[in-house]
Amino acid sequence: MTSHDQEAIEVRTDRVRSHSAEVAVTRKTMDHFVAGTNPMQVLAQTTPGAVFASTDAFGLDTYGNTLYVRGFSQMQIGATLDGIPLGTQGFANYNGVSITQAMIQDDIGGMTMSQGAGALDSFSAQNLGGAMTYVSSDPADKAGGKVSQTFGSYNAYRTYARVDSGVLNSTGTKFYASFARTNTDMWKGQGYQSEIQADAKVVQPLGDKGKVTAFFGYGNFTQGNYLTMTKNMWEKMGRYSTYLKPDYTKAKLWAYYAQYTSEVPPGYEGVLSNDEIGDYAWDASQVQRTYLSSINTHYDLFKNVTSDTVIYGNVSSDIHGGTNNFVTSPSYGAVTLQPDGTVTGVPMALQMAHAFMRRLGFTQKFSYEAPHHNHIEAGVWYENNHWIYNQRLYEDGLNEAHNWNSDFKAGTGHTWFNDTYNTNTFQFFLQDRWTIIPGMTLLAGFKSLTQTTHGGTKDDYTSELDAEGWNTYYRHAANGTLTSSGAFLPHFNFDYHFLDHHEFYIDIAENLRAYDYYSQTQSGTAWGGLGNSTISAQTVFNENKKVLRPERTWNYVVGYRYDSRFFSGSVDYYHTDYYNRLATITEGSSATANSAYMNVGRESMDGVDVMATIRPVRGLEITNSFSWNDAQYLTHSINYGGQSYDIHGKHQVYYPKFTYKANLNYTWRGAMFNFNVNYIGSRPMTYMNDEYIPAYWLATTSFAYDFGKIGFANNIKASFGITNLFNKNYISSAYGAASVSGDDNANLFVGAPREFYGTIAASF
């Protein structure tokens, strides 16, 4: 598309670029999607082997979105922004910040996905395979600005504005400041999503030797959560079934049946189980605030030696939770069911987590252009992370519930427990990229990683609250120290460009993932959900510590790529050996069963990605890709509920075996049309593979026209987009631990229906 944007010089091509086992997505490709779309969603829809799903069209819901790349989730993939380690990209991130809150999407200049074994110079303690790298755009050399306004379905609107200072003085100082606000009503139930963001970046050249860059990012995200469902709830109650708000009488009645009986309310016999009745609470919500800042320095120390330093700080706070149907607000007396179907007392209460994170760290890299065509790089990363997770209860009223997203100030509510963790991470890498002959390179290197986490339960008031009548239950209190360490984690890459259009590459690496931590109740971590009311979590933690080993993988990729003006094609084969796979299991017999966090054995994964792009006429590009993944568990026995299960040969939960993507993009003068369709195959819901999430097709389309220069505006652009074009009713994502068997785990999210968005944008 013809562009009059002053920043067009930053965009080198209209299409996705690839090199070795890495795919790069340009700013222009990102602009094919609805303004403000989650960058991970853009990556997934343009990258073979990647799958993204969310509850909302923008992909902002950190609780309800998931990204998988060749079998690994966003919790197992490294991520950086301008060299700043972002940690895992999940909900209420305990060791970093989601890219959607770290930076406004419009200010991202480009992004890459390493689909191979990761990248040594991309710092992460959670990376098992693959790495995402985001690069922010620089301030423009000429003073100006950009504005855009989006309107859409469910009262959605998004406002974005940016001001560039241009070069201010003879030393080259320049900066930009930007602001974005996104608001939309929830597409089912009551509540809304709201995100406020602000970015600022200053660039100060240091003569011709380098530059210093300062960055600040702010994110404030508030939303009502969408209900997690079982497959039966989705099938029997429909896609629009959600929390019970605003029917408070019904919410109390269903909480009574869930907490005090094993039955279901009248009219739901044979429709919902008693467990599923307990899943229907009054409401749930979250508030996340993030501050991220960094100072980056690039400097040429000598003729062939450069230095890159990043010093960063990250502070975030989270308040999230919802109605708990299994505790009781004690101020209103006994809970009983009346003959008229109403309930006395209040058999529920609001449970809210108050979380706080503070990260301080730095990275230092040196690059040396050595003799004989060797490019040597070395670097270190250190970070200290302080994580607090406090759980509080708030009483609901006799005739009305709590206010949605109230200002839950410190010191209010009744503290259930307080958790504190302190983590120190150190990583070192060394690599040499040797150019054997022009077009042929060999990279060899290694990294060392050590992370130590100390903490756990600081205070637990379960017994005191139970004595007050809250009907509280076991909270799994544990405390201690764990260290993850890998002294030598090698990485090899061979890349050969030959005969002008051909490329062959091999990527091999060993990776290690540090232990997760979150709270004493969160299953799937070494500190959480352990033991039972008779076997303490501390006892189980102490025993686990003797045998636990961090997860690690060996990843192998072999690929071939052909690239010309009219046709591009690639095929990748990859294999992963997964060791020490950790999961929450149940130890002991049925009489002594208790939860533990243990090694559940190995996993083996094989996959193939095939992609082809044709450009038959100028401006038209058609891309098709197909992915096959066979990830199988190799263990013969896991213990759950006192019973042993053989999962050998079962496919990995939540990940599809087959995916297909097609994209058509056509530009003619100032006009652009884009059509994107994805097929996501069925996904196992359970370790025994006896229940599956159904497969689905999902299509999006967008139109845009650049009117060019009009009056004082350098260019004015109008665009229109439709998400879920054919209004598919589908299960988008799954959150939390999977069941061993059966459809009894409410951890599925329904995808958003068809939505329409229009945007007007201009630059000055």
List keywords for this structure.
mainly beta; 22-stranded antiparallel beta barrel; 6-stranded mixed beta sheet; 764 residues
Description:
The protein has 764 residues and is mainly beta. The strands form eight sheets. The chain has a 22-stranded antiparallel beta barrel. It has a six-stranded mixed β-sheet with strand order 1-2-8-9-6-7. A three-stranded antiparallel β-sheet has the order 3-4-5. It is globular and about 80 Å long.
The residue fraction in helices comes out at under 10%
Say what oligomer this is.
Answer: single chain
Count of alpha and pi helical runs: 8
Q: Could you give the distance between the termini?
A: 19 Å
Largest sheet: 22 strands, antiparallel, barrel
In round numbers, the mean pLDDT is 91
Structural class: mainly beta
Instruction: State the low-pLDDT regions, or none.
Output: 1-15
Radius of gyration over C-alpha positions, nearest whole angstrom: 26 Å
Q: What general form does the structure show?
A: globular
Strand portion: over 45%
| Strands, total number | 41
Family: Belongs to the TonB-dependent receptor family.
Keywords: Cell outer membrane, Ion transport, Iron, Iron transport, Membrane, Receptor, Signal, TonB box, Transmembrane, Transmembrane beta strand, Transport
Subcellular location: Cell outer membrane
InterPro entries: Beta-barrel_TonB (IPR000531), Beta-barrel_TonB_sf (IPR036942), Plug_dom (IPR012910), TonB-dep_rcpt-like (IPR039426)
